[in-house]
Design goal:
Distance between the termini: 62 Å
Order of helices and strands: EHEHEHEEHEEEHHHHHHHEHHH
Mean pLDDT: 96
Strand content: 15-25%
Oligomer: single chain
Largest sheet: 9 strands, mixed
Number of strands: 9
Length: 343
């Protein structure tokens, strides 16, 4: 049987920790690293593990996670955040994985973000304990792929109670003041944080340079092109948006979101036949790289197909797609607004 350490870095997470820790019965060892809690986080952790350590926070998530890794003793290491949860199905799957004959170096699991329109992406989650099991990146930290990589059919569900964009931006800005050297990946996530904080103008030159860099991760380059296309569409520059989207599909097959952006471009030009094709591509998208967002592969394509077919004079087809959107989210404002056209 494989042995597994679960590592967490925490601060003021008493309620989340009380929810998560009982879900970790599959773990042989739980390592909790506290970075300065002032609530009962440590007391809650003590009810489940003796492996509690203290780390002085220094605005670097990788250093804190690597400190936690250094305290783990099992064959494999799994990392989690306090505001994650694991369903009973996932817990059972991890018990099964431990007694299986598989012995890969890295196991990816789906990382699911909850909300009105959930989305998920593959994330390295269980790693063989070795000298390559080290996080990099002071924000949006990750472990570089190595060795035998496999995918587990289970998920970690992230349920944050607050957003962190402004906090992350402050860390990036402080790092810039201190003259910290940014890796390619750091630059990309800094630009993405700028976009999330509505500072798109500052992000654009970084994204343009990053998107065409052959040394950057392909998935991140596609994401950069997507953000550039969105920025162009926000100022009705359809030609530039199409150029960025076309560049993205030269790297990877289009995701549902990329398909919807193509559709939006052709709707802006009132080329509804072309838009229909792209929204249909979105509905049947099988792309599982990067972020897989249910909004762009179910709800939005149905809404936009209804609009396009209505404008093309196909009332029956328009109603069919409207009804599909309505079945997905009957009380959504867009659905309610469009209902009047089909009375």
């Amino acid at each position: 049987m494989k042995s597994l350490s679960v590592t967490l870095i925490v601060k003021n997470e008493q309620d989340n920790l009380a929810r998560l820790l009982p879900m970790l019965s599959f773990a042989d060892e739980i390592v909790v690293v506290d970075t300065g809690s002032t609530d009962k986080t440590v007391e809650v952790a003590q009810c489940f593990t003796d492996n509690i350590y203290y780390y002085t926070w220094c605005d670097d998530f990788s250093k804190a996670r690597n400190f936690a890794i250094s305290k783990a003793t099992c064959q494999y290491i799994m990392w989690l955040d306090a505001d994650d949860i694991l369903s009973p199905i996932t817990q059972k799957a991890l018990h099964g994985w431990k007694i299986s004959s598989e012995n890969a170096d890295i196991y990816y699991m789906r990382y699911s973000m909850q909300g009105e329109f959930p989305f998920w992406f593959w994330r390295e989650r269980i790693i063989r304990r070795c000298n390559k099991c080290r996080f990099k990146g002071f924000i949006h930290e990750s472990i570089s792929p190595f060795g035998d990589i496999r995918y587990l059919d289970c998920e970690v569900i992230h349920m944050p109670t607050e957003t962190h964009e402004q906090r992350n931006l402050q860390i990036y800005e402080q790092a810039i003041k201190e003259g910290k050297r940014f890796t390619l990946r750091d630059k990309f996530y800094y630009a993405r944080t700028l976009v999330e904080c509505n500072q798109v103008g500052l992000a654009l030159p970084i994204l343009r340079k990053f998107a065409c860099n052959p040394h950057a991760y392909v998935i991140d380059r596609v994401d950069a092109y997507k953000m550039l296309a969105n920025a162009a569409l926000s100022v009705q520059d359809v030609n530039t948006a199409l150029r960025y989207l076309s560049a993205s599909v030269k790297l990877l097959p289009p995701s549902g979101e990329i398909c919807c952006l193509f559709g939006q471009c052709y709707m802006e030009r009132q080329l509804y036949h072309h838009a229909v094709e792209w929204y249909r591509f979105a509905l049947y998208s099988q792309c599982k790289t990067g972020f897989v967002n249910e909004y762009y592969v179910t709800f939005l394509p149905n809404v936009q197909l209804s609009v396009c077919l209505w404008r093309l004079g196909d009332r029956q087809g328009a109603k069919r797609y409207h009804d599909a959107a309505k079945r997905l989210h009957p009380s959504h404002p867009t659905v309610l607004a469009n209902d009047k056209w089909f009375m």
